[in-house]
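INFO worker-7 received task bundle
INFO bundle size: 2
INFO processing item 0
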Amino acid sequence: MSEVAERTGPAWSEWAGGHALGPYTLGVEEEAMLLDPRTWALAHRIDELLPRLPAETQEKVSAETHGSAFEVQTGVAATVADAVSELRALRRQLERTLGTLGLRAAVSGTHPFAIWQEIAVSGGERYQFVYGSMRELARREPTFALHVHVGIPDPETAIRVSDRIRTHLPVLLALSANSPFWQGRDSGLASARTPLFQAFPRVGIPRAFGDYSSYVETVDLLIRTEAVPESTFLWWDVRPQPALGTVEIRIMDAQTRCGDTAALVAFAAAIVKLEAEEGYATETAIASQEVIAENRFLAARDGVDAELIDPDREVRVPVARLVPDLLDACRGHAEEIGCDAELSGVVDLLADPPAKRQLETARNAPSLGRLVERLADRFGE
């Protein structure tokens, strides 16, 4: 191995820190569904949509594994307000283009009545690789997530944040839960997306790595042995992104309303800053991999009504009691990065959670098709 390789490690692992807009810059990615408004079923027409978009929008919208899904990606933003403003503008441009194709779009953690037999895999090289790797697992019903990138200047801080934020991921999942329906029925879960996505390999909450070299060696072993072609095929709930210089939080359901997205992005960013600069999670909690995994399930099942395990006190604590304490710890950090206004929306998610909204809409609608129509009506809001 050369001296340079010994010093820097594999090329993919070089950390792209030094963000021009300063630390804790933001990027938001959301996955959304294409719909046929005649039936409100999924429409496998991503290959028709992408070429029709304006050039500047094409750069921000990409195909996903399934032909009825797409991802919207903001650029690097200095504030939550900037990121969500761009996201809303992209949604509205998509609506205009979709209208020319006789299509609609909506955002939810799952499509309420899709079934796997009707699913088509996208034709892109990456997604054909996914299908070749996972076979028919790749044709399970599509799921739709919200991903938040937060800029971190150096890799050791990124690992410290990733290790510590694992303890808070179940809270973020509980607040974001937005997929109560699966295959046309009430799943009994607030986030059916979470166990559905668990069918894929290399998902869930990763272990604590301790330092960047341990993370690099773990990932590079998978790359060297050709288990994965590169690091973005690790679909963990939180992961460092060396090429972007970010920590990416991936556990949350995609949100129907941009305002809810803003609240969750603000909370995620403030928690990242809290853990980077103060350290809020206890060592016991960080080391309790089994507790974190169980809390993840409880959050997916019960949403904001979940009672999560506190490994320090060995008790279960309601999410409604955990969130106010965490908000208090985050508030000063949110003010410093200019997202305190958006952070206040977290309280609204506790009082009016997205999964319960869907259930209430479905109870007052003649069919799940009408629920999907209501979700689509909120796409441009």
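INFO item 0 finished
INFO processing item 1
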Amino acid sequence: MEKELFETDVVIIGAGPVGLFSVFELGLLDMKCHVIDILDKPGGQCAELYPEKPIYDIPGMPSVLGSELVDLLMKQIAPFNPTFHFSSMVQEITKLDNVFWEIKTDHNEVFKAKVVVIAGGGGSFLPKKPPIKEIENFESNSVFYSIKNKEIFRDKELAIVGGGDSALDWVMNLEEIAKKITLIHRRDQFRAAPDTVKKIFSLIESKKIDFIMGQVSKLSGEGGILESLTCKTTEGDIEVGCDSLLPFFGLTMKLGPIANWGLNLDENLIMVDTEKFETNEKGIFAIGDINTYPGKLKLILCGFHEAALMSQQAFRYVYPDEKLTFQYTTSSSNLKKKLGVS
């Protein structure tokens, strides 16, 4: 695979709410951004863990769903036209000279930027794998922890495991195109939005999908191609024929390559100052849940505050010869023009 080369003002690592709002704050100061995220879509935890979960502490919003907040942030940053690189993990950050950083991903992308903003939440998202012997032999061919193209499951017999939003949402999304779906969960109660649960029970009652209360204990097949699975239930083992297994047990977060970037850490969190939210490396900032400092609160609204202050210092690295003039979006005709406000 050939290297893809990009040059920009700022590289933001993490497309969660705080990373997205950084695009807005940096854009107001005329800084162009490329945003890298290991997930296949923007939103971070709001998109992966609680898209239908209400959030109650965003200023001015008595209640907003995680997915709605992401949609609003994407609309807010649209005037600044950021470039997104999804399903990519940053592997290396290297100082090129006194001005630029070089950032490399596992997809052979290479970025040259004056500023790096780490907004990676608690680190990299990795799927929680079920404790099934030799499951790794079927991964990528028949076992999938996320879905990037649902068409590959058309006319297939699917076993979906889990009782949360992701599992149930994909049951509903795939029910119309799959040949057969068997939903497997250790209980007959689900941890998902009430409306979603109601729809799932309706599908079960109408026999449009099968439901087994139990746990997958064994996978059978050859050459990485799944043929059937064994499900352990209170009434004994049940064999289920299937082409693909989709386990949705949530995600775990690991610091990953960040631990090797030479940044000062405190219990796997990046230490920053509270004036600029800069790390021990000049030009590298950490905002949101990934950072730590005295009095730190892991709240989205605190990450928004950190993004605003970070952007003030980032401007000085990107435009070292220019004077930074503080402006309000409510009164500045210059800022309104950038936002497309008449």
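INFO item 1 finished
INFO post-check item 1: Residues 12 and 117 are 5 Å apart (CA to CA).
INFO post-check item 1: DSSP finds seven helices and 21 strands in the chain.
INFO worker-7 idle
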